[in-house]
Amino acid sequence: MAKDPVCGMFVKEKHDTIKISKNGRKYFFCSSQCLNEFTQPEKELKKLKRYVAISIGLTIPIVILSLPHMFPSQFDTLIPARFMQYTNFIMLALATPLQFWIGWRFYRGLWDGIKAKASNMDTLIAVGTTTAYAYSSIVTLAPKYFPFKSVYFETAAIIITLILIGKLLETRTKEKASDAVRKLLDLQPKMAKIVRNGIELDLPIEEVKENDLMLIKAGEKIPADGIVEDGLSSVDESAITGESIPIDKQRGDQVIGATINKNGLLKARAIKVGQDTVLSQIITLVEQARTGKAQMQRLVDQVAKYFVPGVIIIAVCVGLGWYYIGGIGLTYSILAFVSVIIIACPCALGIATPAALMMGSGKAAENGILFKGGEYLEIARKVKTLVFDKTGTLTKGKPTVTDIVNLADNSFSEVDLFRIAAIAESGSEHPLSQAVISKAKEQGLLAGSSAPDSFEAISGHGLRAKYADHTILIGNRKLMGDNNLSVTSTVDSKLKEFESEGKTATLIAIDNKISGIIAFADTIKDEAGEVIDSLKLMGIDVVMLTGDNERTAKSVAYQLGISKVFSQVLPQQKERTISNLRRNGDVVAMVGDGINDAPALARADLGIAIGSGTDVAKETGGIILIKGDLRDVITALDLGRKTVTKIKQNLFWAFVYNAGLIPIAGGILVPFTGIEIFGWLPMLAGLAMAMSSVTVVGNSILLGRYKPRFKKKYKEQTRLKSFDTIRSLPASK
Questions:
Q1: Strands 462-467, 454-458: pairing kind
Q2: Minimum mean pLDDT among 3-7, 195-199, 213-217, 383-387: which range?
Q3: Domain 369-395+525-637 classified CATH 3.40.50.1000?
Q4: Would you say domain 183-283 falls under CATH 2.70.150.10?
Q5: pLDDT tens, position by position, 313-349
Q6: Residues that are catalytic
Q7: CATH homologous superfamily for the domain 398-521
């Protein structure tokens, strides 16, 4: 058995089953409607919007015209009798295109279901609305055939309209999902500079071949995966690996296609091109994981699977039983059949899920959370393992100055040391330099237009600058060694201490003397600790999954109390790790924000994307945290549980109203009231439908009282000892 990737229904893999092949995989569908939604989502959405607008436009006058028939005593004095004679024909004219044009999708679904030997909501909708329409049409065109004059065009119209509105709500939330792969493709540069036979060529990316020598200038994207043959530079790999700090590259190092060369000129030999690159593999994983994920079976379809054939069998048995056994005649037997079908019409059943979904989604939006479909709400309540990306999710995603150590033996104060370092860094665009400048401005140390007298960036190592007759070097151990400055054991010990804490440490040398150390880290979000603690109290296992190095990952995990950590994991490995976690049978959710998280978000049972992250991550996830606040993870899981509870309550009440009155529709009261009761049963069906709808909507509205458990603004806390020295620095005069 295969699963329809659109609606989640099980489909038999037979030669006559509706299917399509895409990227070497076969997908099976329960109906041509699902096939069209899969192959042409934008076209189907546009058509659905048009149908909903027309359906509402036809339904409103039908409902208005039906009021005098439903409440004749109230309208006798208001509406002339001559006008009342024509209202049935007007409603018939309005209901016919609504039934057979707008509602044709349900007949198509009914036929596809018959061929697949499966029933779904389309079956019940088609049978129920057709019965109400056919009965009303006969009463209108041949009024002498039935002794009763009530028509139920509004019943069929309301059912079709509400079901379409629910379908539109569900489809619109997934409108952008198909853009995820296109956004990934946009990361790839369109052109590449290639050196062939000593000649520099500008070629389309598709024409790059293995062993081509790529020339990548500062600020350009790397065309394909390769090995550096010449040059020194730092490369921003955050889009692929999640590493927040650019990685220094030199001869022999590997570079990844679509990452950004920050500074310096690189010459790299292409080793993987086209479909073999890391980015192409990510695209493939996202596409396969999204379309291959087992969709949750719709709750309504599960009910309909048994409810639909049951209602039809009961209606046929009731009609035949009264005709052959009860002997009440053809007219009343048909009315008995019609009553059972109408009374079981899925008006409330059809809006049970959309009504709760609208309220739940609205309440979620109020709190900065977007659910992209009903199945994600159901999954949210079952989550047992929650996997967090580190960079940009648990942390702020950019380096921040955490420590400054003065080694100058009072030659410079800490204020002067940091200010001179910030002035020297002001000539650089490197993220670490920007972190220093940002912190110096925050402390008021860069008042006015401070700039170095001269500046030289040394790719892969640091910088050299001159300011106020001082020669300044800022960089790593190799930069100091190249300038004949020895790193003493005391200084080296301090560097290793910072590195063991997962920080990046740089040395400052002034006038040929190592004078200080500046340490950087991607600092943890203020609310992260509270969220992790809350998840543990909810009985959810917390895991951290990151492309960052093991030392940094363990440092962050230790501070947050996360015991299970996967570090130095590439995007395809992230997806594989999620798959392994799911094998234990637990429902796994993944929280991430980057392109490198997209395959894992798609593979997880529930992908939760940070709204401040990339478009691809947001479109791949099933839940989007619009504000990027981690506390919304708790709210999303909690609201998902409460919304699904409301959906189940709604389905219960809808089923009780509709199914509970089936015995009455079948004639159980005839011994007490006589066969005349059949004249009232269609009206009773309408009342039951109204009451069930009111109950369902009212119960859904109660979701509006939901309040997140985090009511007060989280107090800012600093988990790193970090800024103690810098906070004490006085403002520059």
A1: antiparallel
A2: 3-7
A3: yes
A4: yes
A5: 888 898 899 888 888 777 677 777 877 876 766 556 6
A6: 389
A7: Calcium-transporting ATPase, cytoplasmic domain N (3.40.1110.10)
